[in-house]
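Q: Start with the shorter request: fold the first protein.
A: Done. Sequence, then structure:
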Amino acid sequence: MRNAAAIMKAASDLGMPVAAQLIGVQASIGESTLRVIDFGDGAGPDSRGLFQQRDSWGPYADRMDPAKSSALFFKALQRVEGWESLEPTIAIHRAQRNADPNHYTRFRPQATEIVKALGGEAAALVDPSGACPAAGNEVVGDLAGKWVRPMAESINTSGYGPRAAPAGTAGGVLANFHYGIDFATPGHAGTIVAVTDMKIVKVRNLDGLFGTGVTGQTTDGKLTIGMYHMEAGSVRVKEGDTVAAGTPLGTEGATGNVTGRHLHMEFFAGALPNPMIPINATIDPTPILKEKGIL
């Protein structure tokens, strides 16, 4: 636990949030099980320390020092564009430049327990799932309870319900049912906007089947809405922001489990922090969108 505390302090000393502290502990568990290791492996025989940093990272003495090696890691993380909105394992992968971008995923729960145990008030709001306090918290636009079309010139291209998975996409739980509703803009990539007033609770960037997108809870707490497959790097909001209907969120894209450019929206009942299929059940957006005059 002493080494974990040193990692967390290094992030704090650099003015980085608790999300970074959690990423640092997660990375070190995946590299060294939080031990200062004085040997490498076949892929990196010169790797040393808590983060298994190679010679190019800095002097041997620094890589073997918990505080200094942690600072090296966090400075590398700061150079990763948009690290705050990346899945943690992807952010670590881009800082560490390791072979497997998903290597660190399984260490998130253990890292979360450690950070919550050591982090005091700063870590109190970290969810047991590893979700961290938002860095946004801006209010954008006039929150008037309106509903608007998710893309101004779009057409509804696929509805909710039974449907064979399009050729070339993942099967499994997605094979025979479409858990959302799709819109596409003919001829060009549309601007995706908030369909109603919502608080952004999750921002994704090139995240597996979802691709790039956002998830928001309606301000009345009755719905959680996921909006996926946006163009990589196009998201214009932050987690924690509360945005009015019509606020630009990103650009229509073709990231994730898709065969072409479009917006996929999923609706969930209630206020959920990070819903996903098949863990959480979706509801049919069609009646809601018809009632609001969108369909």
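Q: Next, the second protein, separately.
A: Sequence, then structure:
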Amino acid sequence: MWEKIAYQLKKKGITKYRLAKLSGLSEETLTNIKLGRSKNPSFYTVYKIAKALDVSLETLIPDEWKIKGHRG
């Protein structure tokens, strides 16, 4: 998941520190996701990140979490 978050951060010119402020999450939470310590962050955490980055949830969730054959 972090790869998708990092892509959005770079694309939008936002730092991890700024993302923490925008999302209301701690830098520690973001670091845990980045380092793989938090392999399954809560829906609310992912929602807050998506909202702060102004992207859909689907943009951030790993492909393996998506339902195969689902057309939306």
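Q: Describe the second briefly.
A: The chain has one domain: 2-62. The radius of gyration is 12 Å.
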